[in-house]
Amino acid sequence: MADFQSLIKELEAEQISIVAGSVDSPEKASDTVKKNGITFPIAYGMNAEETSRITGAYYDKNRQYVHATGFLIRPDNTVETVCYSSGTIGRFVAQDLLNLVKFYKSRNKG
């Protein structure tokens, strides 16, 4: 989340909104927000197993959490692309997502 916060102005300039979801408690989510200076919305207290079932995100039954999953949603509310992580690597990076959106926009200006 800190990665996206670090580019929030650039993302907003491209009309990209960031929303995060977490299985953390309100207290832990609040600590994360404060620690990283997060200014975008974060849903908290999500049910990990249910979130996995709905989104297809990988669920670690032993540790009861969902691996990072990112969705790029188009202005018409359809899914453009998804990045599913099955471990500690393999997730959207803010600069890559920003570049991808700029690329998509450049193709549509033809």
Describe what this molecule looks like in 3D.
Helices cover 40% and strands 17% of the residues. It contains 5 helices and 6 strands. The strands form 3 sheets. It has a two-stranded parallel ribbon with strand order 1-2.
Mean pLDDT: 93
* Helix/strand class: alpha+beta
What radius of gyration results from the CA coordinates?
Answer: 15 Å
The sequence of SSEs as H and E is HHEHEHEEEEH
Helix content: 40-55%
Gross CATH architecture: 3-Layer(aba) Sandwich
CATH C-level category:
Alpha Beta
Terminal CA distance reads 34 Å
CATH topology: Glutaredoxin
Number of helices: 5
Topology, element by element:
Blueprint: H1 2-6, H2 8-13, E1 20-21, H3 26-36, E2 42-43, H4 48-55, E3 59-60, E4 65-66, E5 69-73, E6 79-84, H5 94-107
Parallel strand pairs: 1-2
Antiparallel strand pairs: 3-4, 5-6
